[in-house]
Amino acid sequence: MRVGLIAPPFIPVPPVEYGGTELFIADLAEGLQNLGIEVIVYTNGEATVNAKRRWLFEKAQWPLQGDDYAVLKDVEHTAWAINDASNTCDILHLNSAQALPCSRLSKLPVVYTLHHPTDRQLSALYSRHPDLHYVCISNDQSSREHLPNFNIVHHGVDLSKYQLRTQKQPYLSFIGRIAPIKGTHLAIEIAKRAEIPLKIAGEIQPAYNDYFEAKVRPHIDGKFIEYLGLADLTTKNELLGNSLAMLFPIKWDEPFGLVMLEAMACGTPVLALRAGSVPEIVKHGTSGFVSRTIDGLVRHTKHIPLDPLQIREYVQQHFSQQRMAQHYCALYEQILRFLRRDAPAA
User: What pLDDT, on a 0 to 100 scale, did the predictor assign at position 344?
Assistant: First the structure.
């Protein structure tokens, strides 16, 4: 079996810093190859994923400058990738909404992983492509869609890239886009009320610069509240691994939240508001604490009697790269088996 795994063209696979979808694609590609599946990753020329790579555009482009041209670039990349993969692959796996209309260019079976939150226009787009095989990344996400043909596969991470640290330092961490829905300002509130320092890392996108200036920057003093900028894998290991807990006070229905797995892979508990996929990912009292209120998170922050080794083992059991790859491999095989069964006799 040969899988054409098509990423958007803007961020390297895996990402150097920001890029949840690209991290997923890298882990899936390498996980599939560990199972003996041949994978071709369609990305940009700066990708370093340990798999066959092909690209139309040499350079990454992030943050995007001009949405109209970005859409054109994504469509051009995807149309080229689908045409190329159709000559060599058995199945296509798409990962951006712009790629869905391009799926009509191939007769190969198509798997599409939903990386976006529920949106009325996106849901309408899915309904116009009923022959695709959709994959939701959480039960919560699937409950918000009415897809014609779907499976649910949780993300997984390569634990070998994350260092278990059993000795923690007296600070809290936050990693994510600096945006209202991610709750950066709430993380600051929790840290201040719990009287525990906070280290923040994440991208400040242009659309949220005013939010950063009004709700985050005034609290940054370089001591109690620190902002570290973007975080690569080395920084993530250091920041997450050493912290008492990672705060995840989201204000929206997060479809998944890979950073929760990254924190737990370092043996660090996640303290999160109950929304979206959070209750599926964080096991309350085992790998972190889930609360409906900020008051609840403040109380849990003051007392975290969780074992880092037990947290890491929880991720290994439920959210490993191998487990994710096995689920996708089974889906691919099922799709191809049905196609062979329905193919007309020679």
Answer: 61
